[in-house]
Amino acid sequence: MAGKTDVLLDTSVLINFARIGRIGLLAAHPAYAFFVTDHVRGEVRKHYVRQREAVEAAIAEGAVTELRADRAEELEDFGRLMALKTLGAGECSAIAVAKRRSMTLAIDDKQARRRAKSFSSGIALLSTEALVISLIQERILSVEAADEMKQDWERNHRFKLGFGSFSEKL
């Protein structure tokens, strides 16, 4: 999309927003256009039954666009990453596609973030935390609403952020 930075979502970040019913925040972001690989979508379909409908709706509505990891160089990188047997298919495809298409990668898993940086030192990374902060800075989300999301993640979804309030991060 013109004027927006293309951000490729890994399963972890996508599911964090889906779990709390807030994928719509991604569509509202004025600075980013969001994408997922076919492998990430496949992981959602297979492992995240409760969030599947929300993710499918987001793709159908154009809030998130699916990309096929099918270019020769992407498949080569995907194969190299899968051969390491340390990451899942979604993470491997997201890293390969983000590298080859010069996209920002939104991923939370620490091991996957390290692997992405070692595989492509110039890759730009975001996280769920960084996306929420940017939504606050863009005035799409209040600090109070962001803190409610954080509490929901921590209480109900085993996703913890190492601070008390998003106000500490601004």
Describe the structure.
The protein is α/β, with parallel strands linked by helices and 170 residues long. The protein has a single domain (5-169), classed as 5'-nuclease (Rossmann fold). It has nine helices and five strands. It has helices at 11-19, 24-28, 38-47, 49-60, 72-83, 89-100, 110-119, 128-137, 143-156; strands spanning 5-9, 32-37, 64-67, 104-106, 125-126. It has a five-stranded parallel beta sheet with strand order 3-2-1-4-5. Helix 7 (110-119) links the parallel strand 4 and strand 5. Helix 1 packs across helix 4 and helix 5 crosses helix 6 (89-100). The longest helix has 14 residues, at 143-156. It starts with a strand and ends in a 14-residue tail after the last helix. 39% of the residues are buried.
